[in-house]
Amino acid sequence: MTPSPQKTRVGMISLGCPKNLVDAEIMLGQLQLSGEVELTADADDADVVIINTCGFIDAAKQESVDTILEIAERKKAGVRRVVVSGCMVQKYRSELQTAIPEIDAFVGLDHLEAITEAVTGREMSPDAAPVKRKMSVRLYDENRPRVLTHGTAHAYLKVSEGCSNPCTFCAIPQMRGKFRSRTIDSLVSEARQIEQQGVKELCLIAQDTTRFGEDLGVKNGLTRLVEQLLSKTSFRWIRFLYAYPGSIDWSLFELMGKEERFVSYCDIPLQHVSQRVLSTMRRPGSPVEYRDMINRMRELVPDLSLRTTFIVGHPGEEKSDFEQLREFVEWAKFDQMGAFCYSPEEFTPSSKMTNLPSRKVAERRRDILMEAQQQISLDRNRARLGQVYEAIITGVCDETEHLLEGRLISQAPEIDGRLLINDGADRIAKFPSFARVEINDAHPYDLVGAVV
Predict the structure, then answer these.
(1) Residues above pLDDT 90, as percent of the chain
(2) Looking at the 3D structure of the chain, how many domains does it have?
(3) Mean pLDDT comparison of 166-175, 325-334, 416-425, highest-scoring range
(4) Which residues does 302 contact at the CB level (< 8 Å), separation at least 6?
(5) Last residue within a domain, chosen from 111, 128, 145
(6) Residue 298: phi, psi to the nearest 5?
């Protein structure tokens, strides 16, 4: 009897944000459904490697290119095909094809179902070929198969695709197209499928999550979606990422203040606070409006954990603008914060602007902000000492088998710090699971505690 031929092993490296990760999981689901290949979590053990790229800022693009080059080099030692997908394909396919001829196939955002042909080497249909600098129009639904890649502690539910905000520095709309929401019924259906796989925390994501439903004429869309998810699923925690300051719906925070399962957490990338810089960025708001907004959030949700990000060194940012930003950070005392140097993105209005602060100035401003935030985060974490919180315990710590790792409600997965368990680990029988943990040590980003 002739033995069956061994299936081609396919590995995936997904870079960038959780929204990109969902695309990666859909492609893996499509491959699994085909039955033609064998999926492996170890790209080093793969015959074919898919690199799902991120094209958000220079650093992300460079990471994507470096990863492609690294995998292309492995074609000399076992890797048979290299497939590139994601945002960079949408915008830079021709450039990548010319610069890295070792790439065997490209899969654009609108044609994730073509991943099987790309991996196997079969010819794609003409309409599945990515077009240079073509905006995405695809909107997937609950019928697309998905392979969850991050275990069952948490999973992401992409509620909408694209973005219609006019931010001058951002190239996301060029790649992912205009904002478009899925239906509540579709999202509830997919959430139930995710729940059936044992997932404990559901994270709602989009480029502009708080605008969900607006294009469909659904008032208070995100609030209505969360209400349906609370009613029709039993996830212990439901979290949303990210809020946009121009589309805040206060009914959402009223719901958060009342519903224990809708966790008290908000990630709202403000990007800046100077009225002049915000105007240049074509972003809504002002220092006064942002202060009022944060005060109201904390009034409605007293235990709210608040995260934000800022861009320094944007064209036109002067010392006085940065001082406004620094003072605001000291006042707001965010639980978590990220600061990034402005990165000129091709074909964006900001990339054509003059009066750009030097890279050295931008980096110094970033460091000043992050040093201030490090002390703020440390102080806020120290205030938790001796307190007992519910935590999700996700597994053994990567650095040492003597510690367990988990998160509090205030720590979003893959974004914020960790909770390390140094006592009571023997009480945790399986992962992931929930436990009561007393905090006994605090660091700027991570917390340490004992199961009680």
Answers:
(1) 84
(2) 2
(3) 325-334
(4) 257
(5) 128
(6) -75, -25
Instruction: Write the pLDDT tens digit of every residue in 197-224.
Output: 999 999 999 999 999 999 999 999 999 9
Question: Is 143 part of a structural domain of the chain?
Answer: no
Sole residue written with tokens 């036109």? 316
Domain span holding position 441: 388-451
Whether 31 is in a domain gets the answer yes
Residue 402: which CATH number?
2.40.50.140
Q: State the pLDDT confidence band at 58, using cuts at 50, 70 and 90.
A: confident
Nearest to 41 by CA among 28, 53, 52, 30: 28
**In this structure, what token pair is assigned to residue 283?**
């972003």
Torsion angle of alpha carbons 350, 353, 354, 358, nearest 10°?
10
Query: What pLDDT band is residue 138 in, cutting at 50, 70 and 90?
Result: confident
Which residues sit opposite 106 in a β-bridge? 84
* Residue 161: both structure tokens together: 């695709």
The alpha carbon of residue 108 and the mean position of all alpha carbons in its chain are separated, in whole angstroms, by: 19
CA–CA distances in Å: residue 360 to residues 145, 273, 277, 407: 46, 21, 19, 35
Retrieve residue 379's tokens.
Answer: 């102080």
Asked if residue 412 belongs to a domain, the reply is yes
DSSP-assigned states of every residue in 22-78: HHHHHHHHHHHHHTSEEE-S-GGG-SEEEEEE--SSHHHHHHHHHHHHHHHHGGGTT
pLDDT in tens, 217-245: 999 999 999 999 999 999 999 999 999 99
CB-CB contact of 8 with 37 (8 Å): yes
Compute the mean pLDDT over every residue in the chain, rounded to the nearest whole number.
93
Beta strands in 102-185 (DSSP E): 105-107, 154-158, 160-161, 180-181
At residue 157, the pLDDT reads 98
User: How far is the C-alpha of 112 from the C-alpha of 161, rounded, in Å?
Assistant: 14
Sign of CA dihedral 252, 255, 261, 263: positive
Tokens of 179: 């904002």
Q: What was the pLDDT predicted at 323?
A: 98
Query: CATH code at 96?
Result: 3.40.50.12160
> Which residues pair with residue 52 across a beta bridge?
14, 85
